[in-house]
Write a structure and sequence with these properties.
Residues 5-194 form the PNPLA domain. GO terms for molecular function: monoacylglycerol lipase activity; phospholipase activity. This is Patatin-like phospholipase family protein. The protein has helices at 15-28, 44-53, 65-79, 84-89, 100-110, 151-158, 183-186, 190-201, 223-226, 230-257, 288-304, 306-317, and strands spanning 2-7, 38-42, 123-130, 135-140, 168-172, 175-181, 207-212, 263-266. The chain is α/β, with parallel strands linked by helices. It has a single domain, classed as Cytosolic phospholipase A2 catalytic domain (3-Layer(aba) Sandwich). Strands 1, 2, 3, 4, 5, 6, 7 and 8 form an eight-stranded mixed beta sheet that branches. Strand 3 (123-130) and strand 4 (135-140) form a beta hairpin. Helix 3 (65-79) packs antiparallel against helix 5. 45% of the residues are buried.
């Protein structure tokens, strides 16, 4: 049986799948990278996919899922930082954030490691979109034309959410590409992960998939928020609808493809403002209060789905 891990995009909300994976490592006693044959991620999920797969000089995974969860807690404000003036003009005159903070964090975690430095297993892919060529692009650890791409470059590309960060200019296959967050076309990359598994491992294989969300969006968008307001008012609500809608569609498709014993989707509700437990669904809310709320939501999901987690771990260790 070939095992696939798919991780959604969602910015700072990536702490939720990180904590779920930390629990899986705790239950199995094995690093995530040794439990799966293929890991695919979008945006923050792509960062996790790469972080879980990079190895140290001894060949062991360099970061545990718990350590990557701490990244959001300790470095979230480094990634999403701006000056007072930037906050006033953001979304009107420029992007919300300069990329310096994000790029420094990626430099600290990935140094100059390249795709060719990753081991053959698990195969790792991250999603991005080339706005110059108007084409989706999957950066893959096993693709010869991608071997010299640095992991920090791949993480930067898949995390370049429009209006939040500038695109990344990167030469891929000797072609100058302009790359943005893969969430613009596939925020939940599970179906693509399954397609890659079919191609790489063959249709004769049995497949098991774990798909991890970063929190179900529950904030409503009222008519008067967008009606007659023009492009700027529409942009961020539209992005959130795109990210959420494609994630739900991919979940539905995977439930038709794989039996319920071979496909598990773990997704938490972020709650509503009047709920006892709720978190902000903004991708960039790295405040202490929101981080704490996201951790509590992850803990609640883990507690409620402990039975399923046991089945997942049994399948991963089989």
């Amino acid at each position: 049986m070939k095992k696939i891990l798919s991780i959604d995009g969602g910015g700072i909300r990536g702490i939720i799948p990180a904590l779920i994976l930390a629990r899986i490592e705790e239950l199995t006693g094995e690093p995530v990278a040794d439990l799966f044959d293929l890991i695919i991620g979008t945006s923050t999920g792509g960062l996790l996919a790469l972080g879980l797969s990079i190895r140290d000089t001894t060949g062991k995974p360099q970061y545990s899922a718990k350590q990557l969860g701490e990244l959001y807690e300790t470095r979230g404000r480094d990634i999403f930082q701006r000056s007072l003036w930037d906050g006033i003009t953001a979304g009107v005159l420029d992007n919300v954030y300069e990329a310096d903070g994000l790029e420094q964090v990626l430099q600290d975690y990935f140094k100059d490691a390249k795709f060719k430095d990753l081991p053959p297993q698990p195969k790792v892919a991250v999603t991005t979109y080339d706005i110059r060529l108007r084409s989706p692009l999957f950066l893959k650890s096993w693709h010869a034309n991608h071997h010299d791409i640095r992991l920090r470059e791949a993480a930067r590309a898949t995390s370049a959410a429009p209006t939040y960060f500038d695109p990344l200019r990167l030469k891929v296959r000797d072609v100058d590409s302009v790359l943005v967050d893969g969430g613009v076309f596939i925020n939940n990359p599970s179906v693509s992960g399954y397609a890659e598994a079919l191609k790489e491992f063959g249709r004769q294989e049995d497949f098991f998939m774990l798909s991890l969300g970063t929190g179900e969006l529950t904030r409503t968008i009222a008519y008067d928020q967008v009606a007659g307001k023009g492009k700027i008012a529409w942009l961020l609500p539209l992005l959130s609808c795109m990210f959420d809608g494609v994630a739900d569609a991919a979940d539905y498709q995977m439930r038709q493809i794989l039996p319920e014993t071979a496909y598990f989707r773990l997704q938490a509700s972020l709650g509503k403002r009047d709920d006892p437990l709720c978190a902000n669904d903004d991708m960039d809310d790295a405040t202490n209060f929101n981080i704490r709320s996201l951790k509590e939501i992850a803990a609640k999901l883990i507690w409620e789905r402990e039975g399923e987690l046991g089945k997942i771990c049994d399948a991963l260790l089989a």
